[in-house]
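Action item from last meeting closed. Structure (420 res):
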């Protein structure tokens, strides 16, 4: 028995989507969901005082760039990448809030849990975006794709919070579904059909298409093409023409299809120049502790370890893989001592040549200590227990990136949200 359309919904929309489904019988139906002004809206959801006000998210207190802006701030021209000075010039009343990636990711996990009841085929695109293949499930709903979209919007409102909103695009490819979701913001719902997608995208800016980045946009602008319609009049290389004509048709990459992690890394830019050797080494140890904790959580070990400090670079490969932070730290410090640079602001740790951990080390007491530390930190938070060498320092804690470049770690390595 089909589910009925929610009360109050216009049946004309339902009829249109039934038509859309029939005329696209040989096509997929792909839905793209994009949370609106996600970081800023999460803060507004958590703090009612911020609702309806211009909010700019900064990496941390004292940082100089806006990494996200609320819907209200965007109306004044504040964009991601603006300096704080530029944002205040455009919007003097803007409220700056330090980012809280754990808060944002906790809502992402709720989102990933609620969408799986609509389709088994889901691709997590970033911390605030996902694709769903609803080709085979839309017939379960009387309103078809439209009803699924409206139910998703309602779920976001109920489960994530009354201030949270999402824009949804529906079409027959991923590229078009994503483009459709960008056409009405905030809180929009847009569909592009096989019959009308070229006409309806004719006046869109070329940079709106996913895949046309800064360099390609600059090239198209230099040829006088600022809209897709103008670009379609040009003779272009195949890879650009396919984007301009919206011919890209990639399959969704589900959780089960994610590739295992090939490396674990952590980079950090300091607030001030580190001019003392002990400050530099403390930061290195901090980043190694975080990276190896992540490695052990994935039940993996590595053989190659890299250290980057501004223009300094060191790499060390060993025969016996390890996940022990002390071993890795000692190896990299020996490389550092060959050229002990100071006055640095950027540091990075990379662990590569990964493999599953299936070895029994002879240092059983050390292994037991690490396991006990991990259990405490997993329960109460990383760096609840940490090396005494880091005492007195401001600890650098883990961050979830907006693009979720480490999806395999977050969703497939024993902590899969969609299976929990």
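Sequence:
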């Amino acid at each position: 028995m089909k589910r009925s359309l929610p009360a109050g919904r216009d049946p004309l929309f339902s009829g249109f989507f039934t038509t859309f489904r029939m005329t696209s019988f040989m096509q997929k139906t792909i839905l793209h969901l994009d949370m609106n002004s996600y970081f800023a809206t999460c803060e507004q959801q958590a703090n009612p005082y911020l609702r309806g006000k211009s909010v700019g998210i900064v990496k941390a207190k004292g940082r100089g760039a806006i990494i996200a802006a609320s819907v209200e701030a965007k109306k004044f021209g504040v964009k991601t990448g603006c300096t704080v000075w530029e944002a205040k010039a455009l919007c003097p009343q803007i409220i700056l809030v330090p980012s809280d990636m754990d808060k944002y990711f906790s809502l992402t996990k709720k989102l990933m849990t609620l969408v799986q009841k609509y389709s088994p085929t889901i691709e997590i695109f970033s911390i605030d975006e996902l694709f769903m293949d609803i080709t085979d499930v839309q017939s379960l709903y009387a309103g078809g794709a439209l009803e699924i979209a409206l139910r998703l919007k309602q779920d976001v409102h109920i489960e994530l919070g009354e201030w949270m909103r999402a824009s949804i695009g529906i079409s027959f490819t991923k590229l078009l579904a994503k483009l459709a979701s960008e056409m009405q913001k905030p809180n929009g719902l847009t569909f592009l059909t096989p019959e009308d997608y070229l006409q309806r995208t004719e006046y869109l800016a070329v940079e709106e298409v996913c895949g046309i980045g800064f360099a390609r946009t600059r090239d198209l602008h230099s040829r006088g093409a600022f809209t897709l319609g103008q670009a379609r009049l040009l003779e272009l290389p195949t890879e650009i023409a396919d984007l301009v004509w919206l011919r890209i048709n990639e399959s969704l990459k589900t959780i089960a299809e994610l590739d295992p992690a090939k490396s674990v890394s952590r980079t950090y830019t300091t607030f001030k120049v580190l001019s003392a050797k002990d400050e530099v080494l403390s930061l290195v140890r901090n980043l190694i502790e975080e990276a190896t904790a992540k490695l052990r959580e994935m039940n993996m070990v590595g053989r190659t370890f890299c250290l980057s400090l501004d223009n300094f670079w060191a790499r060390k490969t060993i025969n016996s893989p390890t996940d022990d932070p002390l071993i890795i730290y000692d190896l990299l410090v020996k490389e550092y001592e060959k050229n002990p640079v100071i006055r640095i602001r950027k540091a990075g740790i990379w662990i590569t040549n990964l493999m599953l951990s299936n070895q029994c080390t002879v240092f059983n007491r050390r292994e037991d200590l690490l396991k006990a530390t991990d259990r405490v930190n997993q329960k109460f938070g990383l760096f609840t227990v940490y090396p005494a060498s880091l005492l007195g320092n401001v600890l650098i804690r883990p961050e979830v990136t907006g693009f979720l470049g480490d999806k395999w770690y977050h969703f497939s390595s024993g902590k899969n949200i969609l299976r929990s």
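Note appended to the action item: The mean pLDDT is 85.
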